[in-house]
Structure formats: structure tokens, C-alpha cells
Amino acid sequence: MASPANSFVGTPYWMAPEVILAMDEGQYDGKVDIWSLGITCIEMAERKPPLFNMNAMSALYHIAQNDSPTLQSKEWTDSFRRFVDYCLQKMPQGRPTSVELLRHDFVRRDRPLRVLIDLIQRTKDAVRELDNLQYRKMKKILFQETRNGPLNESQEDEEDSEHGTSLSRELDSLGSNHSIPSMSVSTGSQSSSVNSMQEVMDDSSSELVMMHDDESPVNSSSSVVPRKDHVFIRDEAGHGDPRPEPRPTQSVQSQALHYRNRERFATIKSASLVTRQIHEHEQENELREQMSGYKRMRRQHQKQLIALENKLKAEMDEHRLKLQKEVETHANNSSIELEKLAKKQVATIEKEAKVAAADEKKFQQQILAQQKKDLTTFLESQKKQYKICKEKIKEEMNEDHSTPKKEKQERISKHKENLQHTQAEEEAHLLTQQRLYYDKNCRFFKRKIMIKRHEVEQQNIREELNKKRTQKEMEHAMLIRHDESTRELEYRQLHTLQKLRMDLIRLQHQTELENQLEYNKRRERELHRKHVMELRQQPKNLKAMEMQIKKQFQDTCKVQTKQYKALKNHQLEVTPKNEHKTILKTLKDEQTRKLAILAEQYEQSINEMMASQALRLDEAQEAECQALRLQLQQEMELLNAYQSKIKMQTEAQHERELQKLEQRVSLRRAHLEQKIEEELAALQKERSERIKYLLERQEREIETFDMESLRMGFGNLVTLDFPKEDYR
């Protein structure tokens, strides 16, 4: 569906709200053509679109923020009103599609088939009647020139004004040119659909030529050379030079031809309207260029904001990626350090185990060597004691001479056996004691090695947990630093984005104000041009009115002259002849006095007319200037109000963005602090549990070891010392 505003590229009156908002927010769909159709319906009904008497910049704000327009007149049917309201839904989602519109009651209702044809024929008849009026005017001028000479300029101007009035009334009766838009909108914003009803077809000029050719024998002393919209009057009797009315130049005619060719769809259009529309088209180009530049600026601003947002987003992504890499690097380094520490501790434990095994073996060897030495010394002392006892027994037996030798031998053998048995028991007891000593000291040494291993395990786990705590504290400090750097970057980016947005809004508002001021100057120039034309036209109008007063004066003089003649004849008839001279003198004096009074009244009427017309023109122009200034001031105040509203909305948006950022930053910091506390609490809990588990395990190992020692009969090994015992 084509938008009806195609002939007004750059004007916002047919734009849907989402089209205007799309300059800031994004894209729109085909529902904008449905809106344009509704606006076109209002234009066809009221002969101009809504907000047409308003500046284009101000109309932008009204369309985007106000409610949907409606039909103002009460004369339209309910189905047409519903159709227009259906097309002009504010939200695009509630607006119908073209298929839904085709099913509407207003579209499906029965209607005459010859409406457009009858309207075209009616307009053609009106234009033909207009041409006949022009022809009759020219014929009247020709007849008067033939009979009385050329008409004076004032009479011609009077007839021009009368025919112009009849022309405007005729066209207004057809509704062809509705209030040539009320001087409150630039002439470049006038609709071709409004003007299309007043266009004259080209064949009307040919009809005018044919009519002049048919009527030409009426007056042979003058010839009329008809042209489209312009006529040359030649006076063949030599009463004056040809008086051509202004005709368009060749360039204007070529532009008019191009304009007609460009608008072949126009219903009826005359060459004079084409010329006027060429001038309007030039002014329309200024408005189109202004609106195109405004749209281009808004799109450029949107692109700048999007580019800055993308740049800031990329910068934030890069910043977060950098921080994430730093966190991963710290985690990897922490894992590597913990692995190194674990390997170091394993190596230390293995080394301590080897050292403990070597010490245990060395300790056992020392005990065994000492016990072997003690055993050797013990055996040697037993041998010496055995020899001493043996010699002592022999001496005792040798001294006893009463005992038989055999008995002595038996007693000596028995004594040897007892001694050997005693020494064997002592040796066995020594070996038992040494074995117990060896086992007990080895057990104690194992307990001591186990306690030392426990101490090493405690030291290792404390070292590991301290390392983890240090790493976690470093990680937390790094996360806090990351949060602060991210916070600074977010505030800096938000400040940059808001600053650019405010700069662009200020530039946009400055452009809108410049466009409004330019619009105001153009309106003032147009009004000044109109007043200048009125001032130029005023002498002609005054001269015409003066001629009218003069004609009334002449008529009055003729009436008085006739009355004077009748009175003179009557007086001469009823008075004696000798009094005729006195009566004639008296009547002559009375007539002279009355004519002088009439002349004084004539001059007074002329002066009053001049003063009243000049005062009326000045007052009218001053009233128009005041009305224009008031309207422009209201539009400027409205624009300032909307700009202030947008500025306040933007500042409120910036405040909300800042509050939202502060809330997000504080919430993120609170989550980070909570996470740090939870991780520290978890680390402390892990530390306590691991140390508790280690101590409990070690305690169970010691208890188990001590229970086994008790079952082995070693007693309490806690206070065991290493004395050099005598095993005998």
C-alpha cells in the first residue's frame, strides 16, 4: 500500500507515531501505511490533514505524544468514523491489516459507481463556466473600447476584482482550494490532493480559443489573440500601445510542463495553477530538505549512540575477559603451588620414613651389640666364677680326708652340675631380660617415631591450610580490586554515554529551534510580502472607490441639474415675464450653492474613504501581525515546553540509570562480600575438620599402639627412659 504522503516527502503530517519514534528506537512495519490511509481519509473529509496549520517540527512532537486524531465534523456517518478510528489506532499491534480493512463495513457497503466521474464532470463544468466568465469580461472590454475608448485603469481593476471574487466563490463552492492553508503553515506544505479539485484541464484553453474565434466578427477594430491564461489586446485604431498582461517565461513554462508530466494522475489542472505550484514546489523543496536534514541528523545521532554503546560493550567484554583470565591464572597458580607443596610434603614424609627406619635399625643394632657384649662379659664372669667355685670345692674336698674319694667325686660332680644349672638359669634369665629390653625399647622407639610422624603430619596439614588461606586471601583481594575497577569502568562508561546523549539532545534541540526560527522568519516574510502586495494594490482599490464616489457625485449632479431645469421651467411658467431674470439668477445661485455643498461633501467623502481605508488596512495588517506573532510565540513556547519535557525525561532516565547502576554495584559488592565470608567460613571449617580428623586419627593410632604394647606386657611406654641396666 502506497503512502499518500509520497507527494509530501519530508512532511510529517502523514507519519505514524512509530515512524517518528523509529528515528530513535529502531524499525517499524507496514502498519504505518494503514495510519497514512486514516490520515488521508481525514484529509479528504476536512480538506487538510490534522496539525496541518502547525510547523512540521511541532507536528512531530504532537503526533508522537498526543492521542490519535479523529474527525471533527458531525456530518459523517458512524461507519466512516469507525473506519477512520480503526485505521488510526495508536499502538501498531492494535492497528488492522489491509485484509482486515477490506472486510470493514465502510468498505463493503454499497455505493454509486459514478461518484468520481460525476465529480470530475462537475469540476470540468465549473472550469468551463470560469472560462466563459473570462470570455465575457474580455468581450465587454472590447465593446467598451470600441464605443467609448479604452476603459480607465480603475474600472478594469474593479471588474478584475469582481470577476476574481466570482472565481473564488465558484471554486470555493466546489471545495477545491480550502483556505489556502491559513498562513499558519508554510506554502511548501500544501497538499496536491487539496489542489487537485481546482485544476483546469488543458482542453479548457482550446475551448476558450474556439469561443473567441466564433465571436471575433463582433468587433473588427480590435483583435484578441488568445493564449493559455494570458491575452494580448491590440488596438488597431491606434488608441494606444499593446498592453500585455504578464506571461510566464520560457523556463517557467518548461517547469510547468515538467510538473504536469510528473503529476499525470492529477484530475484537472490549469496552467496558472501549475505556475503557482512550481513556486510552491520550490518552497516545498526547502521544507523537504529541512526535514530530510532533521531526519538524517536523528539517524546519525542514533548511529552514534549505537556505535558508542557497542564500543563500550566491547570494552566491558574485554575488561571482563581480562579479569577472568587473571582469576583463572591465579587459580592455576594456586593449584600448582598446592601440588608442589603436596609433592614436597610427600617427599619429606618419605625421607623421614627412611630416616626413621635407618634410625630404628641403627638403634636395634646398638642394643643388640650392647647385649652381645653384656652376654660375653656375663659368660666370662660365669666361667671365672665356675673355676673359682671348682677350685674352692676341690680344696674343701682335699682338706676332708675322711670322705671317701668316690663320694668326693660324686659331691664334686653334683656341685658342678648345680653350678652349671645355676649359671644356665642365670644365662637364660639374662637372655630373657635382654629380649624384653630389646622389644620394649624397640616398641618405645616405634612409638617415638610414630609421634614424630604425627608431628610432621600436623605441620604439613597446617602448612597446607595456611597456604590455602593465603591463596584465598589473595584471591579475595584480587576480586575486590576487580570489582572496584569494574565499578569505575561502569561509571565512566555511563557518564560517557549520558554525556553524548545530552550533547546530541542539545544539538537536536538547537537544530529544532533554528528550524523554528527559520520557519518564523519565513512566515513573517510571507506576511510582509502579502502586506506589501496589499499596499501596492491599495492605490488601485482607492482609485476604484474614488471613481465610484465620483460616479455617484456625477449622478447626483445630473439629478440636481434635471431638477433645476424642471424647477426653472415651472417657475418661468407661473411667474410674470418681467421677473424671469430675477428668478433665473436666484435659481442659478441656489444651484451653485447646492453644487458647492455637493462638491464639499464629495471631497469629504473622498477624504473619509481614504482615511478609513488606510486605517482599516493598517488595523487589519497590524491584527494579522499580532495574530502571527501570537501564533509563532505559542508554537515556540510549545516547542520549548516539549524540549524541556524531553530534557527532563532524559535527565530522569539518566538518574534512573545511575540509581540502577549504583544498586547493581552495591548488590554485586554485597554478593562478593558474602561470598568472601562464606569462603572464609568454609575454609575455617575445613581447617578445623581436617585438623580434628587428623588429631583423632593420630590419637586412635597411639591408643591402638599403647593397647598392643599393654597386651605385649610392656606397660606404660610414655615415660620410658634408656638406662644402662644390669641384666644380672
Task: Describe this protein with a few key phrases.
single chain; disordered C terminus; rod-shaped; 78% helix; mainly alpha; 728 residues; two-stranded antiparallel ribbon
Strand content: under 5%
Give the N-terminus to C-terminus distance in angstroms.
Answer: 127 Å
* Helicity level: over 70%
Helix-strand pattern: HHHHHHHHHHEEHHHH
| Rounded average pLDDT | 75
Provide the spatial order of strands within the biggest beta sheet.
1-2
What is Rg?
63 Å
* Derived structural class: mainly alpha
Low-confidence stretches: 1-10, 149-252, 255-267, 721-728
**Rough shape?**
rod-shaped
Tell me which oligomeric state these chains represent. Answer: single chain
Coiled coil: 284-329, 588-689
Subcellular location: Cell membrane; Cytoplasm; Lipid droplet; Membrane raft
Catalytic activity: L-seryl-[protein] + ATP = O-phospho-L-seryl-[protein] + ADP + H(+); L-threonyl-[protein] + ATP = O-phospho-L-threonyl-[protein] + ADP + H(+)
Biased composition (Basic and acidic residues): 235-246
